[in-house]
Design goal:
The protein is built from 3 helices and 12 strands. By secondary structure, it is of the alpha+beta class. The strands form 3 sheets. Strands 10-9-8-7-11-6-5-12 form an 8-stranded mixed beta sheet, with no helix packed on it. A hairpin with a 2-residue loop joins strand 7 and strand 8.
């Protein structure tokens, strides 16, 4: 999962998105320093380097405005959300090389900067209105509660199921009588990726080379 941004890093990242959308060019290091009352250009440069390390931007150190906003779509108050096509066994479960691109959405619908999208394959969650081909937004910052819909990792496979606890054990429940529940056993290579916080359903057959199993 993406490394969590500090409050200042998140503010700088959103400023980069909005400034670029409004002006069609990126703010300079001095622009950023002025906006956040940071006198040291090195401090600003370190903030940008941290954003790059955490996977939100790419930098060209030879240019004062050399920042590439990954997935940026140039619309005000929007944010690119990474879309992953594969899950890596173990931690971290999400790797940059498995990122297939970005889906840009209105920032009002983004509960945290760490959210990401996965694509559902299969109909095991139709009873909870999640269909084959849907894109689910996953919030890794939210702790699951009983009956929340979650994305979970089983080895290198990902699944979307209803999270519940039975007798102290975690059970991933399907929402389709034709599919089985998954009881998490001790020693299983299992990890919770996050709680589903949104569902995007294209009105057409969007092409995708890889999908996740529901």
């Amino acid at each position: 999962m993406a490394e969590q941004l500090t409050k200042l890093e998140s503010s700088v990242y959103h400023y980069l998105l909005d400034f670029t959308a409004e002006n069609t060019y990126q703010p300079s290091i001095r622009d950023i320093g002025k906006q956040f009352k940071i006198k040291s250009t090195k401090t600003v440069s370190d903030l940008l380097q941290s954003l790059a390390k955490k996977g939100y931007i790419e930098r060209d150190p030879a240019r004062s405005r050399g920042v590439n906003l990954l997935g940026f779509g140039a619309a005000l108050r929007t944010q690119p959300i990474p879309f992953y096509g594969r899950i890596h066994a173990g931690e971290p479960a999400l790797l940059p090389e498995h990122r297939h691109g970005f889906i840009t959405i209105d920032r009002r619908f983004v509960p945290s900067d760490e959210v990401f999208f996965l694509k559902v394959k299969g109909d095991s969650m139709v009873g909870r209105c999640i269909n084959d081909g849907d894109y689910v937004m996953v919030n890794p910052k939210q702790d699951p509660r009983d009956q929340d819909i979650v994305a979970a990792r089983l080895g290198e496979d990902a699944t979307v199921k209803t999270y519940t606890r039975r007798g102290g054990s975690v059970v991933l429940e399907a929402a389709n009588p034709a599919d089985r529940d998954i009881a998490v056993q001790p020693g299983m290579d299992f990890g919770l990726l996050g709680v589903i916080c949104g569902v995007f359903r294209p009105g057409f057959d969007a092409q995708s080379s890889t999908a996740m199993q529901s």
